[in-house]
Sequence to fold (126 residues):
Amino acid sequence: MILSLLPPKTGLSRTLAEVFDVAYEQVDVVDLVKDISVEYSVNCIVSKVSGTFPWLLSFYLDFEVNDDLSIVVRLCAAFSCEALISNDENLDPYPMVLVNQSMEARIVNIDLERLEEDEAYVVCVM
Fold:
């Protein structure tokens, strides 16, 4: 998941606890994969990228999530932001799904030139 906005780590941990319905103490936000721990139910790796969606979040959970889109919408609502997620219905990795806090989701294309040159996630204007 790639977000357009991100709160401080403390706010992120609390929001993730609420969204995933786990205790705050069961959430860990880290910068590197090597720092994740099986002691937590929710491990979130936060990576800074560039572009209009500069925050890449990777989740490692010790439980199954039945409705991924619901989680994304709840995070967008909590942070008042938009998110890009992979389009699992398409083998091409570049069309992505743009999700907002109003539960609107639409397929968008990523500017491949910006992604390759700057590792920037920028939605193409069509």
Notes: DSSP finds three helices and nine strands in the chain.
